[in-house]
Every structure is written in C-alpha cells, then in structure tokens.
Design goal:
- This protein is an all-alpha fold.
- The chain is 61% helix and 0% strand.
- Helix 2 packs across helix 3.
- The protein is globular and about 30 Å long.
- It starts with 7 loop residues before the first helix and ends with a helix.
- The mean pLDDT is 95.
C-alpha cells in the first residue's frame, strides 16, 4: 500500500479492505488479537477507547507504520 492514511475515514476503509483481502471478519480479527470486537469498532470509528488498539491493528493487518504517521499524530 502506497496510499497515506490521514484520517479516521481512510483508516476505517483501509481496515475493511485488509480484512476482506485476508478473508477474515472483524470478529476474527478481534479473536486473533485477543481483544473484544468492540475495541476494533472503537478504533475504526475514532472513539478514544479504541486509540490504544490502532497501532496493533495496523501491525496485525501488515500495514506500514510510515503510511499512518499523519493519522497517528492526529489521534
């Protein structure tokens, strides 16, 4: 992925595209990360309760931290 993620809407779209490409559900992503599915939802919808899960989600979905720098500064 070469596209830079700069806001919550782009992050949410990226997460959805990644789970589809990996052929897993959000529930399966949460199970693999051993966290409640609600935390995934919180993270992709910009709720503060999900902020600490954003970087682990990016890494679990094989994202490049460099592409998220601007977005991560904003949260």
């Amino acid at each position: 992925m070469k596209e830079k993620i700069t806001n919550t809407a782009e992050f949410r779209r990226w997460v959805r595209m990644q789970v589809v490409s990996k052929e897993i559900s959000m529930a399966e992503l949460a199970r693999q990360m051993e966290i409640p599915q609600a935390r995934i939802s919180d993270a992709i919808h910009g709720r503060s309760t999900g902020n600490k899960f954003i970087i682990p989600i990016i890494r679990k979905l094989d994202g490049d931290d460099e592409n998220f720098k601007e977005f991560l500064k904003a949260i």
